[in-house]
Amino acid sequence: MAFGFILYALVILFVFNSLTHSLCLKTKMSTEKQTRVFRTINVLITILLISSYVEVLNTL
């Protein structure tokens, strides 16, 4: 089950990074600001994925 969830998490991170990249291109952000945006989004998504994994473990 952990392997499946890791694959799911990697797909989710890839999708959100692709969307973030598109956002940065459309708004013509500076490179400095892009770095902060990517870091913030990746940290928040990682926290969300970890908490959802813990929630799934608690229901089993």
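[next item in queue]
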Amino acid sequence: MFAESALTLTQGQPKTINSSGTAMRSFCPDCGSGLFYRNAAVLPEIVDVQIATLDDPEALPPAVQIQTAERLHWMLQVQELPEFERFPS
């Protein structure tokens, strides 16, 4: 999450919808990828930027986990599952 004043778009114009009351979600109008989340009532002057949309998402590793109240129980051990770099064959 970043201060809204720190966000600068360099190209394009996202499509924004009101998803539930004060929650505003912005998407790429061409491919539908989620870009931003804003909620002035809960997070005034804050924009949540979807990490995968950044040029270098590795540069900003997560520091906290939020909204875990409804997390599925099995997510606590997800790191123990087998991994595949691509679809398994």
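[queue empty]
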